[in-house]
Amino acid sequence: MPEYSFDIEHAAPSSTKASACSVEPGSVKDMSEILHILGSTQMPFAVKGGGHATNPGFSSTRGIQIAMRRFNETKVNSASGTVEVGAGLTWDQVYATLALTGVNVVGGRMTGVGIAGLMLGGGYSYKTSQYGLALDNVAGYELVLPNGTVICVTSNDDDLWFGLRGIVTKFILKSHPQSDIWGGFLFYAENQLDAVKNALVEFQQKNDTKASVGVSLSYSSGQLSLLSLFFYDGPTSSGVFGDFLAIPTTGGNVSTMSFFDLIQNMGPLFGTNGLRQFCESIPVIHYSPALFDTFVNQTKLWGARLSPLDKNMTLSSALEPFDKGLFSHGSGSAYLPDRSHAVFPSVVTAQWSNASLDETMAIALRNMSKTINAAALADGQNVSHAAAYGNYALFGRPLEDLYGGNVERVRKIRAAIGPEDVMGLAGGWKF
């Protein structure tokens, strides 16, 4: 049954579960009827968009797998300055449709990432320093409530806008002009660690909202490798990446290209390659030299400990600075609970092949997170209550780590909108 296999498949095998069956709704009427049935039978279910979630059971289930892939339309509305996007699409599919339109949306940074998961988790983008999170650029949602009612949610719907309950079938996104961009990626040898560190520290002082940088530290087979990702929302980089470009490289390419080509070029860098994968979120306020060194040391330490257990193991840390004003484009949603100061969504990621090591990898990532968080506190960063990024956070974290003081309000919205708690039968962060 190829449809069933496609419906339950996730990017990482560790996230895939053998569901009792799968169902592919093709309309909001279908979705409404499905929710009615699930509510009356109390059958566990999961909703899968792109299948990129790395937490087991978040978009997979032993019960009923709802696959959203038939919600696959992208429609540009020039008059309203919006783009309607079906919840079953991936971001590279959306960007392919928009490539010749002269407009773009604030969305995912790699191939294969689903619209729905990124949007509902918050959504960091190459354009976040300019326009905020992906969820800050939503004009409306087409939503099927837990009782099967279909509505369009806007900022006028205070509670549902704040804490969505139900299944989103369509996102109405604000559009922005798009020309060619400058970007790409470069690899460096380990002996360039100090140069990359200094370049990252200096970049945070540039205050150019069109520029985005990410630095990845990866340990595999006894070696640490470095990778920098670059994006500039214009055909030239205006010199903002000069410190990085002065560092000798071992490979990679940066140039002027279309936004869609950038996403396609980045895709192979971050695939799971059929390996199991967990991530953990580590929010920081800035990357100081001392904190950068902690990321390096923890990546090497845990990489060396885990490598002998699995020949395919890779451990990586991603450092992602943004403009200090990235949260000023707020949308009044449950995430983020505090927009008064910037928080950068660092992430540590493990990939491996042996399923018996799942718990070992989760423990390692949690230990890395605790150590790096302690280093940030020692560095004078007020991260005690900084919100973790839900799309990076490892299963088992308290809701308060993501939503802070907003948890209680979301629970009240859940009780009012869906007293039967149909959505409690689904995976994800449990309110």
Automatic annotation (TrEMBL):
Keywords: FAD, Flavoprotein, Oxidoreductase. Coiled coil: none annotated. The keyword Transcription does not apply. Residues 15-178 form the FAD-binding PCMH-type domain. InterPro entries: FAD-bd_PCMH, FAD-bd_PCMH-like_sf, FAD-bd_PCMH_sub2, FAD-linked_Oxidoreductase, Oxid_FAD_bind_N. GO terms for molecular function: FAD binding; oxidoreductase activity. The keyword Oxidoreductase applies. Belongs to the oxygen-dependent FAD-linked oxidoreductase family. This is FAD-binding domain-containing protein. It comes from Russula ochroleuca.
